[in-house]
């Protein structure tokens, strides 16, 4: 079996579905470049891909004054900055082995928590935790409460609905008792852990661990080969706010993948 670190993962931001979503929120997509018009000029971003053919002409034609590039490999002729839009390091879990082998690759504390929570799902109706799939309305409410408690910004409900509608069957979510949940986007046999949240009670009961495991199993049933946690703490661009959820993600094992960071190009478009 091919080693997970050697699998080429095409990022979800290069999917047709993501392009459809980003156009709904005011951007335009041209050859994998995202363009946003601001009065007489335009800003652009190119994410998780090599530079497309003719990219300089596209920037000039669209009067782009600033382009942010988050590449797969370090580019030549671009200035690196300290303002990444995406996580500069991620964690991937191999979904190809059996469920038993995947579960046994988790760290000991993670396995203990998940087993304990799984026991509660087997209690009679009304007494245990109930796992639901694709309750997007319920997830958004969980996410909203989670963000409010942590003083974090999240997209409005309309933008969230745009994302879900754009991905259709390539998007699913798992929630537990209205206390914890996650939204997963799928693209080219990879499942991306895109949004997640939990109430104070959900965190106290460690429900996010069970959410991730149930979502992983669902992703595997859908034929996904790789699980991408969509960002963990990177000491090159330290953000202490990422330490807690990075510790959580790392409890599921996996392989760390680093990106070279973010690069910016400024130009006079005239």
Verbal overview:
The protein has 270 residues and is α+β, with helices and mostly antiparallel strands. It has 2 domains: 89 residues, no CATH class; 170 residues, Aminopeptidase. The protein is 33% helix and 26% strand. It contains 9 helices and 13 strands. The strands form 2 sheets. The chain has a 7-stranded mixed beta sheet with strand order 7-8-9-10-11-6-12. A hairpin with a 2-residue loop joins β1 and β2. The chain is globular, with a radius of gyration of 20 Å. The termini are far apart. The model has no long low-confidence stretch (mean pLDDT 94).
What would you report as the Rg, rounded to the nearest angstrom? 20 Å
Supply the CATH architecture of the largest domain. Answer: 3-Layer(aba) Sandwich
CATH superfamily of the largest domain: Gcn5-related N-acetyltransferase (GNAT)
Percent helix range: 25-40%
How would you classify the quaternary structure? single chain
Do you know the CATH topology of the largest domain? Aminopeptidase
Topology order in helix (H) and strand (E) letters: HEEEHEEEHHEHHEEEHHEHEE
Please, what is the average pLDDT?
94
Tell me the overall shape. globular
- The number of E-state strands comes to 13
What number of domains? 2
User: What's the number of helices?
Assistant: 9
Q: Which structural class matches the secondary elements?
A: alpha+beta
Strand residue content: 25-35%
Assign the CATH class of the largest domain.
Alpha Beta
């Amino acid at each position: 079996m091919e080693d997970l670190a050697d699998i080429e993962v095409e990022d979800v931001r290069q999917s047709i579905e993501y392009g459809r979503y980003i156009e709904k929120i005011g951007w335009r997509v041209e050859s994998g470049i995202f363009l946003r018009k601001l009065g007489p000029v335009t800003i652009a971003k190119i994410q998780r891909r090599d530079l497309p053919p003719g990219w300089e002409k596209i920037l000039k034609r669209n009067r782009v004054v600033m382009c942010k590039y988050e590449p797969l490999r370090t580019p030549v002729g671009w200035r690196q900055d300290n303002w990444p839009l995406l996580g500069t390091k991620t964690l991937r879990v191999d979904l190809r082995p059996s469920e038993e082998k995947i579960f046994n690759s988790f760290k000991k504390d993670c396995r203990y928590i998940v087993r304990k929570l799984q026991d509660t799902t087997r209690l009679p109706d009304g007494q245990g935790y109930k796992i639901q799939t694709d309750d997007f309305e319920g997830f958004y409410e969980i996410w909203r409460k989670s963000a409010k408690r942590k003083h974090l910004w999240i997209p409005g409900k309309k933008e969230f609905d745009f994302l879900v509608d754009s991905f259709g069957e390539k998007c699913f979510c798992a929630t537990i008792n209205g206390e914890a949940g996650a939204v997963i986007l799928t693209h080219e046999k990879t499942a991306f852990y895109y949004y997640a949240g939990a109430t104070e009670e959900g965190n106290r009961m460690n429900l996010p661990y069970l959410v991730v495991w149930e979502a992983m199993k669902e992703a595997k049933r859908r034929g996904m080969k790789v699980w991408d946690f969509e960002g963990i703490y990177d000491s090159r661009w330290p953000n202490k706010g990422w330490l807690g959820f990075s510790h959580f993600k790392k409890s599921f094992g996996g392989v760390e993948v680093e990106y070279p960071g973010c690069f910016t190009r400024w130009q006079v478009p005239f």
